[in-house]
Amino acid sequence: MLKALDAETFDEALRYDGIAVVKFYAPWCAMCRRVGASYKKAAAASGEESGSKDVRFYEVNFAENKDLCRREGVFALPMVHFYTRSMGRINRFTLTTNADKVIARELDRYVGASGHLRFLRSLRQDSTLSRLGMYKNLVGVLQAFQNVGAIAKAAAGERAKQKAAAEKGTTMTALSTTLLNDLDLRDELESLFTWVDSNDDGVIDARELAAVAAAVCGAQGCSKNEDVYASLLDRAVLFVTAQAEAESAVMSAEGVKEGEKCDEEGATHAKREVTLDRESFFQLMVGQQMIELSSAGKEGGKELMPAFESLDTDSDGTISRVEFLGGMERVCVHLGQWKPDSAIGCHEWAEQTATAFDVLDRDKSGTVDYEEFVAILSGVPLAKLVKATY
């Protein structure tokens, strides 16, 4: 019998050390009813009923768990997600017909002869965030610094909601506050901060932010002028200060507008050292996470496009093995736990990411398209253990 999950039991189920197969459905969905028996057949053939120790099957009622489904990026029904403890969501697809055959084929990529599940389990031992997830999040760091205006606007909107709630005599806890207080999220952000803060002085400076850009920009190129990144840091510090003072006017007074980005020609930052401390970095990244959560599914699932394009160095719409390994090597050289002169460390990194490429390349074409990239690297949001509050 399939186990039904809700907001209270979902995250615990995903801590399973194999693959958690989750079907999202709704009682009013005709196709959901049509594939129901076929999904149960797949569970009987590949799940615990079959004696498997690697696969478990679950289902979530969309009608009763809309916030959970929104958080997990479910915008079509019936949809199936595969999860592992180390990587979060590693696959997703909608069901139409022959659900049992489709699920069996997709599961074979992980528990069949390829042995990809063993690789995914090994990622848990590398760090709090896997290397693949780390690459995505490093791109997110650069985006966060560039998106300060949009983050400030979202924060102002949150304050307006709180004010409206107060005027009605009710209390509303801001999502940003909930996220900042979540210990699991803070652990993940701590890992990310440690990677960026290469000299371990407890702050991020322009040189370190430039290193992030060098690691993830690829052929598209990013400015090498540290003044550009000093200017981005300045705007981030301004945002954090405005947040602390709860004065949205401070942002507009300093000229930080929605969508505003800094380029080399527009950088007017004064020649002085600007840094961002750990707690301020957390606040900035939570702001970026809120933007990603609010935009998920609204633009055709393009939220991971910046990370994809940074690896697609020839801009042909796919990532080749050479491009993929090159991107991972850039991270190792510029930001890795191994120093640039430690060739053995980066070589080991390359060997492991070669296996990761095989996991990404679902159709075995030798290249990874955006759909394949999203299927595994979208993962569970950083806020996976926090209930949606609005």
Automatic annotation (TrEMBL):
<dbReference type="InterPro" id="IPR013766">
    <property type="entry name" value="Thioredoxin_domain"/>
</dbReference>
<comment type="similarity">
    <text>Belongs to the thioredoxin family.</text>
</comment>
<dbReference type="GO" id="GO:0045454">
    <property type="term" value="P:cell redox homeostasis"/>
</dbReference>
<dbReference type="Pfam" id="PF13202">
    <property type="entry name" value="EF-hand_5"/>
</dbReference>
<dbReference type="InterPro" id="IPR011992">
    <property type="entry name" value="EF-hand-dom_pair"/>
</dbReference>
<dbReference type="Pfam" id="PF00085">
    <property type="entry name" value="Thioredoxin"/>
</dbReference>
<dbReference type="InterPro" id="IPR018247">
    <property type="entry name" value="EF_Hand_1_Ca_BS"/>
</dbReference>
<feature type="domain" description="EF-hand">
    <location>
        <begin position="348"/>
        <end position="383"/>
    </location>
</feature>
<keyword id="KW-0106">Calcium</keyword>
<dbReference type="InterPro" id="IPR002048">
    <property type="entry name" value="EF_hand_dom"/>
</dbReference>
<dbReference type="GO" id="GO:0005509">
    <property type="term" value="F:calcium ion binding"/>
</dbReference>
<protein>
    <submittedName>
        <fullName>Thioredoxin-like protein</fullName>
    </submittedName>
</protein>
<feature type="domain" description="Thioredoxin">
    <location>
        <begin position="1"/>
        <end position="112"/>
    </location>
</feature>
<dbReference type="InterPro" id="IPR036249">
    <property type="entry name" value="Thioredoxin-like_sf"/>
</dbReference>
<feature type="domain" description="EF-hand">
    <location>
        <begin position="299"/>
        <end position="334"/>
    </location>
</feature>
<feature type="domain" description="EF-hand">
    <location>
        <begin position="184"/>
        <end position="219"/>
    </location>
</feature>
